[in-house]
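Researcher: First entry.
Model:
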Amino acid sequence: MFNRKSKNSESPHILEFEKPLWELQKNLEELVERSQNTKVDVSCEIDALKQKIESEERNIFAHLSTWQRILIARHPHRPYALDYINNIFSDFQELHGDRFFGDDRAIIGGIAFLNGESFMVIGQQKGRSLEENIACNFGCPYPEGYRKALRLMKLAEKFSLPIVTFIDTAGAYPGIGSEERHIAEAIAVNLRDMGRLKTPILSIIIGEGGSGGALGIAVADGVLTLENAYYSVISPEGCAAILWKDRKFAPEASEALQLSPEKLIQFGIVEEIIPEPLGGAHRNPKAVFASTQEAILRHLKILKKLSPKQLQEKRYNRFRKIGIFAEEK
């Protein structure tokens, strides 16, 4: 059931379309408190209101627009990459630096274990507080982040470790420092070299999957997406600024971009949608961690049966066919 109280914050983040649930839950809490203070039995009214809340909640989340799903993907209480790594894997040992410039906290990675097997896990990390977000640049990686990721992937290839990446970025950082250190080249090299890796790669979109910033660690043998995540060549706001000259048209842009996970499946961009609890992953993170872990093991079980040559050919063909379409006459 919808809960006004959040474990992550004293002031829960309520999305615009969730406000009717907020008001109903507030009424329920007031009714319960009044019943306790007056010793009057209103259990029938309480049960009826609970049923109304559950019905309204199911109705709202069964008919989400693409823009509303994007708002859930950006929810500040949503689990981030480190949450997935620490809850799915064990004994995570983070590795730092790109051996050229520095260590980018927007991309984290290292060796971890699952069911006794070693993995290389890499993720784009956002922060909860302002200090954390400044430290990881709000999840927008610099060139050194992509170079670090590729260094770790090549290390995984050397020791035949499967690679799992967690995608959650609005895009690579486009500032002056990023351009001075060649962000476009860093991403391009990742795209090329990830396509050549001789070890299985699995990518999971856990929130935002924006442009080349996401693709820079997502050239994988299989790409999975959470139910309320999105994966796009441009953000809705960026698209709206180009097409409508105003970012306020982001909801319309999100529909035009066809960002829903169902469309990603239809276009062959992702292989599977990982279901989320009603209301989003932040409502029940443990359930999402369990579903994601099961999906990782299931897909890698298939990928590990392929030879390095088969992996390379399959990965190449997977991306070559994206964007190919035929018009009906």
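Researcher: Second entry.
Model:
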Amino acid sequence: MPFLEPKYQKAAELRVKRRPKQLAVVNQGGCTGCMVCVDFCPVDCIRVGSGPDASNPTVHKAIQIDLPACIGCTLCAKYCPWDTIEMLAFDDAYEITPEWTLYSIVDELWEREPVQVEAARPAKRERARKETDS
């Protein structure tokens, strides 16, 4: 993360330990490719690809959020002039992204392993009760 500002360093480190409550998702159907969101992303998780027309790739560039890298900071959604970026719950983001993505940029860059879902941990009271029963 070469452009990570110090004030976002802790959030980026926590991203490795736990998943964010919400993630940014771009509706590519309404995105103009203005790339304002790219300037505000503190962890550089917004990918930009060439437009759908191979003869003129700079027109209507495709923007996509790299969901495994997103920390859920909401800055891209806040500053998007076209309101095409939405913050969605973690699980909803992974469900809706394929519907809103006209063509994927992230998948073209590299293949990733699927996101591991954390196993549900028992509540503190249940753990304490199990410890006292032992």
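Model: Note on the second entry: The chain has a mean pLDDT of 79.
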